Amino acid sequence: MSFLDAREHGSKVGSGGHASAQNEAIDRRERLRRLALETIDLSKDPYFMRNHLGQYECRLCLTLHNNEGNYLAHTQGKRHQQNLAKRAAREAADKPAQPAPNKRASVRKVVKIGRPGYRVTKQYDPETDQRSLLFQVEYPEIEEAARPRHRFMSAYEQKKEAWDKSYQYVLFAADPYEVIAFKIPNLEVDRSERFFSHWDTTNNVYSLQLPFKPAQQLAPAGGGGPPPGMPQPPPGMAGAPPPPPPFQGIPGMPPPPMGLPQPWALPPRPPGA
Known about the structure:
Layout: H1 3-8, H2 21-39, E1 48-50, E2 56-58, E3 63-65, H3 68-75, H4 78-94, E4 117-125, E5 130-138, E6 149-154, E7 167-173, E8 180-185, E9 196-200, E10 205-211, H5 214-218
Antiparallel strand pairs: 1-2, 2-3, 4-5, 5-10, 6-7, 7-8, 9-10
Family: Belongs to the SF3A2 family.
GO biological process, one term: spliceosomal complex assembly
Keywords: Metal-binding, mRNA processing, mRNA splicing, Nucleus, Spliceosome, Zinc, Zinc-finger
């Protein structure tokens, strides 16, 4: 470019003229590369790798780059971003589902006003030989639209008394009253139509009928007895050990005298016999 051409394009004398579009693009990319290197740490990029030839490689897209700026420009491109989205979706699908964290519900604080009144009635059905308990708990000042609840508790759940597997507990709860519990025998409950609960909204009385299976009530407490149809043992022989088997005499030996123990085992044979 001559001096006159430079002046016609508006350049100052000695400035060398305007830079071409290609030179401006090269200068812009170089400035962007230096800025990116200052803000982005390539050592923390899991897909950035420098091979033995001195080139830079993207392990996600399997592309080669001559310098770090070219690699940074590639990471902002459409191809690299699509591969990142595919990799994230595949890892999310392969990752096992984690259980949801247990979120404890906030405990509602209620001022207790005391224990409710109750009545317990023992019942017996002679036709089925079945015993049951009828609980009637009164809640005259129960909260509006509330309903009493009951549950069974094992002897090993409570911490008030010593553990006894022969008993269990039935609990009744209704706000703002305290929870009350009743100690009942640890028998299997009959869950048929005889077992029911009823909440009387007029008198505010909660009723629970708890029947037990009759088969457990007929079982003897001390263990089994003779099978059905077999004669009963005499009154004085209950629990006594069985008598010893009758003595069988040994050929060639006199019977043992009275009062001595009988020889249940054979005596050793004498030598030469």
